[in-house]
Amino acid sequence: MLSTPVRTAPDPATDPFGRPYANGFRPAVLEWDGWTCADCIVCGLGAECADCRACTKFAFPYPPHWARPWVKGMPERGIEAFGGPGGMSAGRHLVDRGGDWVLIEFNRDAAATARAAGHWVIEADIRTLDPRHPVLRGVLRYHGSPPCQTLSDAGKHAGWNADEIAELQSIMWQASEAFGFLEVDDLCSLYGGPHHYFGDVIDGMEDHPDVDGGEMCEGGHLPPCMTPAEFREWAASMVSDERTALMAEMLIWPMCLVQIGAPLVSITMEQSANLLKQCPALAEAIQSEITSVEGLGWAWCSWQVADAADYGAATHRERAWMVATRYEEPRYADHVDGDKAARAMWAHVLKRTGRLPDWAPELDRRIEPYQGRPALPTVTVAAALDLPEDWWADTRGKRGINPETGKPKGGGSFPLNAVGPCVTAPWYAIKFRPAHVPQGEGTHTITAPELGALVGFRRDHPWTYIPTRKGALGKRNIAQMIADPVSPLIGAAVSAAVQGEDWYHPAATYQAEVYRLDAPNPDWAALPADTGRPALPAPRTEHREIEQLELFPAA
């Protein structure tokens, strides 16, 4: 997939007022002549964008109808980065069936699965896409689930390297300057004037006629000075595993979208819980760039660790979640004791060093989707799979017994009468057995639909494997695909915090369907639904926003 071409400015490069920049400076602006479907003769005669060659070519790789400018009243457009096989999308669909989303996914099996589930999927490395594409000017929502292998307990912990994290944090702090959000006292140095960005006189220019002020001496926002590709390359150069650098996409896309004029109003993110527990500096960098007046300046950005089992899933799936909203607090907003939350989150750091991490996000706010309502039922693995409660599961083969404990060596066995541990790829070979059967000698196996159900997917989710060799079944590949994504149950709760209807009743009904439970508790139906959906504001309602969004209009 090719990036959208970057504009080649005339020589010399000029700003929106026609003033030439000095010293060869060229703002990282996108090439676009302003054409949209509104100018399309074919569509003007009644054709659909999908049937129009011009609109399809212009919008590619996004849906052809995105060539049509978004206006209030149309379905909300959203971009889901690292969309996987559609877990977050399935959850979002429970609370907002009127959205218009595009998923970006690199893994071909996951992309094929999400496509089979009915989603528009761009199968590409996200780093080959340019978030300044003209049709993205209509995007209101952004979600990302960056790869967690370098952060998770199951990986090699490459993302835990303190020096690498510090370097990447420093780079991400500079995203606001890179993409045009840094407000400065004096822009005249861009035009060869006598002042630095922050107003002090440049050495050797004390005798310049404009040293006490002139036509070019004014404050404002620095224009974008890096393309997304350049920023990505910079971030990747600081880490040993390029997957860690993909965290930068959580700033690159929102900042570029806002810069080109998109009415973006929410950002959500899911990652390994270790992002907060072991690498809080990265979470701090993202939060500070979103809420700081020197960054996006948004109203809310919260971080928390949440477990899908607490939202109705039959297996644990503890993840770090970020919710950010532009104008006001999200639905389910909850203010808590930030110091207490920090001490609980980083108790292991306190125990080792006697102090909290030097850099960490504020934890004084979070979302609480239950809002005092009864929790959804706890679902055991036995109930989810219709197996006896006194049975056991073995995720590994037969192993010897530890003489000191009397238990199998190496773990991997658990009872079915409780919520199960987090699903992992080796579960494709799981065996279930009665308690009296020796470990490793069970004969009851699991299917992909059942494995998906343990995570929270419907049993008809179209798990798809594209063979790489003749006869390959891809059982482990599919199990890995099921182990990676967001559980739809918690995905619904987080999605509802920023869009759509309240999650509670849809999630209760969905949980009952997935796990074949009795009908949801009738008392729940009498409980009032939360109606506090953040209103969708009219874009560009304040002077600063107008100035920021139109800083570099189309040439």
Summarize the structure.
The protein is α/β, with parallel strands linked by helices and 555 residues long. Helices cover 28% and strands 12% of the residues.
Helix content range of the residues, please?
25-40%
> Over the alpha carbons, how many angstroms does the gyration radius reach?
26 Å
SS-based structural class?
alpha/beta
Largest sheet: 7 strands, mixed
**Spatial gap, N to C terminus:** 25 Å
Biggest sheet: strands side by side, in what order?
Answer: 3-2-1-4-7-9-8
Strand content: 5-15%
Could you explain the architecture of this structure?
The structure is a single chain. The chain is of the alpha/beta class. Helix content is 28%, strand content 12%. It is built from 20 helices and 14 strands. The protein has helices at residues 41-44, 53-59, 87-95, 108-116, 162-173, 175-178, 228-236, 242-245, 249-259, 274-277, 280-291, 338-345, 347-353, 381-385, 448-455, 475-483, 488-498, 504-514, 522-526, 543-549, and strands at residues 77-81, 100-105, 120-123, 139-144, 183-184, 220-221, 266-272, 300-307, 318-325, 333-335, 365-367, 391-394, 413-415, 431-434. The strands form 4 sheets. Strands 3-2-1-4-7-9-8 form a 7-stranded mixed β-sheet, with helices on both faces. α3 (87-95) crosses α17, α5 (162-173) runs parallel beside α11 (280-291) and α15 (448-455) packs parallel to α16 (475-483). The longest helix has 12 residues, at 162-173. The protein is globular and about 90 Å long.
